[in-house]
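Following up on my earlier message about zinc ion. Here are the inputs again, as you asked, copied directly from the submission form:
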Amino acid sequence: MSYGRCLHLRGWRRRDLRRRGSRPGQRLTADIEHSSIDCGRSSREIEFCSIAFELFVLLNGMGAGAPALPTNYNGSAMTLQPDILFHRYFQSEKRSSMDRKHYKGKKDLETLTDPLLRLWLVKIQESLNESLNDEQDIPDHVKHRPFHLDLIDDCCVRNAVAFLCDGYSFIGITMTLIFTMWEVCIRLCRSEAIAMVLGVEPPTEVCGPLHALLSQIQHRFIVSHEYTHHVHGHLLSESAESAFYNEVVSDDSGSIEEQAFEVAADGYAVFQVLANLVDGDWRSQAVALLKLDKASAGVQDQALFSCFVIAIGGYLFSRRPDAVDNATIYKLGHPPQAARMDYIMRQVVKWSKASHPSLTGQITPERFQEIMHAVAAATFEMNGKNDWVTQIVFLQSESGSKYLKKLDASVQRHIQTLGSRK
Ligand SMILES: [Zn+2]
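Thanks, got it. Here's what our run produced:
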């Protein structure tokens, strides 16, 4: 079963679509995907206020107040907390001048004028750090340093990064990516097509809670993906103090092996997020957010599965699709989005068969197609009004088929090494 074949968006407004050419540039510097949306914060902070009340209700269930932020990130060695080390990493002269321009360091949330926005981000960070450092001993994981996740004060770069430095396994998410995901979720939860897919009244009466749920799924998927880069040893082959594992950002200095790491990280993230969302502690909160407390388990399962696909589909679809041909595709740092989503869906099916068989029958290509059409309709303006048709046509060609076989083989080789990497 190929879910990629379902991603052809029939009836799309083809005359509106523009193609993006491949862009030359180096991995961390010139080939950064700048946000196509205004990097200014004020409009988003205003937008935030409009649904902040419902989020605030959610946040009340997420623990205590914010930890005090250090007032001087460049403080002495006597006060080197992980967030200070995180900040210094980006300002180090080991980074290129271009990197230092794009990644300024830790985002000081105290500079945000909206107190609810600040509280929301602090809670996200607290919750994710707590989860990261509450891990169990997994035989397939490499030995790794303690985790610290922080937000990055950036200059219009949608990115998440993983790196090793000063005794920590760091994960960073740029504020631009946070705000981009926020906007994706706004569009999704206000979409009539999404409301129809979920079977709620348009505009959805659960807009605020649905936004909160979709945002959480996106955040946890991205962080689980970065976590996998650490625990599966993807960073060990690079110079430990300078390695900087890019997400989202496109580049042309990748390889099939690097793409295999990305597929594996997506796959592991699928298992972690779904296990928590559908079968774990997160389920009751998610079901309550959807106002499905009294629905049957089957209805709840279907809604949770749909929300997962909507959130991850929206996250991938909001990016400009990489232009691919037989030469460029092997140089990408990540598989093209259509291939990535196809792998993600295959992992969803694999997870369901192993852990939640009653859901397997509901995960059909037709249902996936229905959801992705709704996602595309809600978010296509964010990626320059592009679709994935070019990618899908290539992936279905003879060259594309060879590429997918090589990628599959590389993923399998990588998976077979898990447990032997120490
Ligand atoms: Zn990655």
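One observation from looking it over: The beta strands are 103-106, 147-154, 160-165, 168-174, 245-246. Hope that helps, and feel free to reply on this thread.
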